[in-house]
Amino acid sequence: MTVGLFIPCYVNQFYPQAAIATLQLLRKVGVEVVYPSKQTCCGQPMANSGFEHLTQECNDLFLENFSKFDYIVAPSASCVLHVKQHLHSATDPAEADRVRSNVYELVEFLTDVLKVENLRARFPHKVGIHQSCHGLRGLYLAQMSELNALPFSKPVHLLNMVEGLELVTLDRPDECCGFGGTFCVAEEAVSVKMGKDRVTDHTKNGAEYITSVDLSCLMHLEGILHRNKSAIKAVHIAEILNSTL
Amino acid sequence: MEKGMKDHAALAEAFINDEERVDWHDGALWWIRQKRDIASKQIPEWEDLRETASRIKNNVLSNLHDYLLQFEANATLNGIKVHWAADAEEHNAIVYSILKDKDIKQMVKSKSMLTEECHLNEYLIERGVDVINSDLGEYIQQLDNEPPSHIVLPCIHKRKEEIGEIFHEHLGTEKGVSDPTTLTRFARRHLRDVFITRRAALTGVNFAVAETGEYVVCTNEGNADMGAHLSEVQIASMGIEKIIPKKAHLGVFLRLLARSATGQPITIYSSHFKKPREGQEMHLILVDLGRSRQLGRVDFRDSLKCIKCGACMNTCPVYRKSGGLSYHNTIAGPIGAILAPNLDMKKHADLPFASTLCGSCSNVCPVKINIHDQLYQWRQVIVREGYAANTKVLGMKAMAWTLSSPTSYSTLGKAGRWVLNNIPFAVNNKFNPWYKQRDMPDGPKESFDAWYAKNNSQDSEKD
């Protein structure tokens, strides 16, 4: 099994440490990982803004980079969901279909495909989980509070394997942070208010770190934390799961 | 957007300026969302009920024509006069002609978002007919000359002190009185006089049953019943999508409606109206107003399954933080944002973008409308039809060009990180909406690309 590592554009540029943690974590659990170096972006920023018709070249590039892999794994639920729902090919629809069904967000790959039960990681801190909406309701990484259904959480399942880590309970466990792609600038006032309220929920419940499967949410929350000189840090879940004993 | 008109982002920003109000608004609606969660989780078959309701509505939308004719035939047999209206103007003209025939100059109304969509009150007032909204929240909004901000809780954005002020100004209550019970009692006394004196009453319709030709009106205040029972002319206005095939289906919808709306097991009054009592005239107006056009839009037809419970508004974080009036449309929130562009795409081009696509709306929806997917689809249509701002079109084209080429992407990425590291003021300024209340991410020295190129061989050897 060879995994193609898909590192979304903004993670590549702004959060290399999360990408490195993802790569090292996958290798640690025994996976052969290859990073195709000609990748850029999944096309989501354009598509969510109504410009899906401009994404064909991104789609083609994605297929060119990732067609040959058994699995494609990325540390970003949002980008994975976009590929799952919208990757199309004019020339080879069957291949696009195959790639769409083989792309995984890191946490779901670890729990569903590799069925990891032991991580040998240590992170002795109080951590709040920010459920990314695309991870929660799009990829169904955890049970959403809207449904009358049994609770489960793939991120919690993994975080429970981390020594010393204490999860904090939030007042609104699955509320959106307000990032929303271009929404964060087009609707700046609403976006920031939503972000501030998410941060407050973590603060008042005693979190030292906010983690998530999506760096885009974390980038937004981190921007608010920094501005307000908060001591709370935002950290991608890969970095926690890859932390050393 | 029309020139001079404020869009959702600007109206929301104005609402958010009063942060204390936003927190209270957000909290009040979240409290209702939590009541809805508790109520829905007490019924083991909740998800099956949603699925059943969704399927009944799918059937309705696929056979709308037949069910409407069946309803018309049965309602007519029952003695109800059935009218058809293609648009708001026709609807309003029908109401006016019914009143004019009887020389009625005063009417009492129960809650009907459809008549709000039609701007019926303004139409009738211009023609010398006095109309009073009898739902308490709507009544307050009417006194304050503002449209409802929520389809179930019309004045949820107002604080009790503000309502006290409105009552003082319009109804002569003592200044400074803001106790809800006192104010409600005062309004009730006032509305009782209205009910007793009005010869005509108009109600909305929650469900109309094709099989029996009857319709059901749900209220918590009993105001629809008070108006209808005391009037000599009773008018009901309904959107054509409100039809359901059989009386047996009512149980499914009544169980879902109140629980989704407010967390109650059922609305206090779920009144069935079937035939006029002796000496009374009963009219029912079937209104299209864009419904059949929406039915013809494949990606958006499901929006007509809506039973107007408001659950999507209560759960929507954008709605909770921005207030219903920021949607500048009769139906606000996520469902409004997919109904509005059908009515006027240019005027409402901003609404499908007033969402983070978090998906909570689709999952609370009792009839399983894929609301957030439809918001995504509307964005594509609005851009395709040319309603996106030119600057946005250019920006997106530039972005698509950059991201289509690994070389240009990598060059630009490097440049971006260099700017963040070396001349942060180039991005940290008032022209950058991100920076206004948030810091930019730190620009790391190297991208993952660069790190991988340098370290990958060593990294592999280490493993």
From TrEMBL, chain A:
<dbReference type="InterPro" id="IPR004017">
    <property type="entry name" value="Cys_rich_dom"/>
</dbReference>
<feature type="domain" description="Cysteine-rich">
    <location>
        <begin position="127"/>
        <end position="221"/>
    </location>
</feature>
<protein>
    <submittedName>
        <fullName>(Fe-S)-binding protein</fullName>
    </submittedName>
</protein>
<feature type="domain" description="Cysteine-rich">
    <location>
        <begin position="3"/>
        <end position="83"/>
    </location>
</feature>
<dbReference type="Pfam" id="PF02754">
    <property type="entry name" value="CCG"/>
</dbReference>
<dbReference type="GO" id="GO:0016491">
    <property type="term" value="F:oxidoreductase activity"/>
</dbReference>
<dbReference type="GO" id="GO:0005829">
    <property type="term" value="C:cytosol"/>
</dbReference>
UniProtKB/TrEMBL annotation, chain B:
<dbReference type="InterPro" id="IPR017896">
    <property type="entry name" value="4Fe4S_Fe-S-bd"/>
</dbReference>
<keyword id="KW-0408">Iron</keyword>
<keyword id="KW-0813">Transport</keyword>
<keyword id="KW-0677">Repeat</keyword>
<dbReference type="GO" id="GO:0046872">
    <property type="term" value="F:metal ion binding"/>
</dbReference>
<dbReference type="InterPro" id="IPR017900">
    <property type="entry name" value="4Fe4S_Fe_S_CS"/>
</dbReference>
<feature type="compositionally biased region" description="Basic and acidic residues">
    <location>
        <begin position="438"/>
        <end position="448"/>
    </location>
</feature>
<dbReference type="InterPro" id="IPR003741">
    <property type="entry name" value="LUD_dom"/>
</dbReference>
<protein>
    <submittedName>
        <fullName>4Fe-4S ferredoxin</fullName>
    </submittedName>
</protein>
<keyword id="KW-0249">Electron transport</keyword>
<feature type="domain" description="4Fe-4S ferredoxin-type">
    <location>
        <begin position="296"/>
        <end position="318"/>
    </location>
</feature>
<dbReference type="InterPro" id="IPR004452">
    <property type="entry name" value="LutB/LldF"/>
</dbReference>
<dbReference type="InterPro" id="IPR037171">
    <property type="entry name" value="NagB/RpiA_transferase-like"/>
</dbReference>
<feature type="compositionally biased region" description="Polar residues">
    <location>
        <begin position="454"/>
        <end position="463"/>
    </location>
</feature>
<dbReference type="GO" id="GO:0006089">
    <property type="term" value="P:lactate metabolic process"/>
</dbReference>
<dbReference type="InterPro" id="IPR009051">
    <property type="entry name" value="Helical_ferredxn"/>
</dbReference>
<feature type="region of interest" description="Disordered">
    <location>
        <begin position="438"/>
        <end position="463"/>
    </location>
</feature>
<keyword id="KW-0411">Iron-sulfur</keyword>
<dbReference type="InterPro" id="IPR024185">
    <property type="entry name" value="FTHF_cligase-like_sf"/>
</dbReference>
<keyword id="KW-0004">4Fe-4S</keyword>
<dbReference type="Pfam" id="PF13183">
    <property type="entry name" value="Fer4_8"/>
</dbReference>
<dbReference type="Pfam" id="PF02589">
    <property type="entry name" value="LUD_dom"/>
</dbReference>
